[in-house]
Amino acid sequence: GLILLHREHHRTITNLNSDVAQYDVKKSCSKALSVMVIPRATTDINNNLRNGLQSNPYPFISAQCNIGSVFYPTSPLIQDGTPNFDNTHEAYYYVLNEYQNFENSVPYGTFWGNVNQICSSVFYQNFKLDKDPMSGVLLNNSRSLLLDLKTHNSTERRLDTYLCHLRLLRVFRNNVVVRD
Question: Is the pTM of this model over 0.70?
């Protein structure tokens, strides 16, 4: 049969009622490519007068994730005080670097809090599929992605997490088998 790899996105919704969000995404993280966390106001999601897809202004004062014993970024991405125009530069450039899309990026003012933007204020992380050079086996075999996010206040918000990961297709004449 023919063996193909394809990318798939897995969405996890987490409701946040405090200033700390520590949650895990259990989905093929040994083959994870990237994760995007979009903060949204829960009051806007079902409100016909507001854009339910609009992201909140960048709310994170600390952000880090890990797969197994590997942490991304190596030390938490920390903002001093309430996120605003003056102190979110590091997070902005970190997300741009991870997303690798400087040409089509949102302006800095939009990232930290301009309204009427769909997904401008996100936490984004790429992962490396490191393999053992001798055996070709993935070095990280964890099935869980842990996210550790802290916000500047305990405003109720929803975190939409999109994990992009690889899946394996085995195509035969009579059927197709999909595996993680």
Answer: yes
